[in-house]
Amino acid sequence: MGLDYLREKGKDTVIIVGLQTDYCIDATVKCGFEHGLKMIVPANTNSTIDNKYMTAENSYRYYNEFMWNGRYAECISFEKTLELINR
């Protein structure tokens, strides 16, 4: 399991990027949070498509600006993410 691997390596932070903000990314962010991981979502590194209820842009903003940030993840700039990686 990936969680065991991270713990064996002494890692507790995951940077998540990808597709389907409202499905795959959301589930991964919340699952990681529930397992005690620090989840980081860099700005403009996830996307989705329009659905029956919201445009892709509205979904992106909803999850990145309201749902995750300060609750399940730290949503930060891409530049700040690179700084964290290069430490």
TrEMBL record:
Pfam families the UniProt entry points to: Isochorismatase
Residue span, Isochorismatase-like domain: 4-53
SUPFAM superfamilies on file: Isochorismatase-like hydrolases
Name of this protein: Isochorismatase-like domain-containing protein
